[in-house]
Design goal:
single chain; about 150 residues; alpha+beta; Endonuclease, Chain A; four-stranded mixed beta sheet; 5 helices; globular
Length: about 150
């Protein structure tokens, strides 16, 4: 059996095992399962008309309602360091991963701050919370929209 050679982009250390390399290479940044699950639920409760990964505003939120100035980020628990389920830090290359995760959190805070400065309503939904109760996540957006539409 031929050994698969993964392309190294120098953003992460070389994993010690092929299995780890395969798992890490399979991670996606767009259209993740939690994101698809939330989008399906938003649509089910009547909140269609969103834009995906909209590039016209800072941070490229996962889901955007441009006319209503709503930005939604769907954060993976591992990569964004969920405060709810607190995933463990890898046991190898620990220093690298601590720095990587710290930079991810800093970047996330900056994106949110910039959007709020531009008067956008920002929602951040965690992967574990979407798995736990996607309906309440979707209704959080729904209820906000109803509240701003009632003020017009």
């Amino acid at each position: 059996m031929q050994k698969i050679q993964y392309i190294r982009d120098k953003r992460s250390p070389i994993p010690k095992s092929d299995i780890t390399s395969r798992v890490m290479s399979a991670n996606k940044s767009r259209n993740t399962k939690p994101e698809l699950h939330l989008r399906k639920e938003l649509y089910r409760i009547g909140l269609s008309g969103y834009r995906l990964h909209w590039k016209n505003i800072p941070g490229k939120p996962d889901i955007t309602y441009p006319k209503r100035k709503i930005a939604i980020f769907v954060n993976g628990c591992y990569w964004h360091r969920c405060p709810h389920c607190k995933p463990p830090i890898p046991k190898t290359n620990t220093r690298f991963w601590e720095e990587k995760f710290k930079n991810n959190r800093i970047r996330d805070k900056k994106k949110i701050a910039i959007l709020k400065e531009k008067c956008w309503k920002v929602f951040v939904f965690w992967e574990c919370k979407i798995k736990e109760d996607v309906e309440s996540c979707a209704y959080e957006v729904h209820d906000y929209i109803k509240s701003i539409e009632g003020k017009k």
